[in-house]
Amino acid sequence: MPVSTCNVCIKKGSVDANLGLTFFENLWFDTVVRVRLVHPGGLAATSGLQPDDVVLSINSKSCESPLNTERMLHESTGELLLTVERSLTCDVGDNDEA
Prior knowledge:
6 strands, four-stranded antiparallel beta sheet, 2 helices
């Protein structure tokens, strides 16, 4: 499946701001940080983050694990620039109007 790399900017006003975001828990040797759930109306959703996005870095710092990424997001404030890898999908079906 083809993938695209893009940037998502989250504006977090305080350390306690809830991003509305969870990651898949991976095995200890897996370094992929994949978004499991984006809660509607949360900062992550309004910024354009999507389920199954893979977070590569935050403000140019590599994301090493889901736990490390959660800590970085929790401790940060201001503009957070997430570099994410997103799978590209295309739905092909019948077009009854043609």
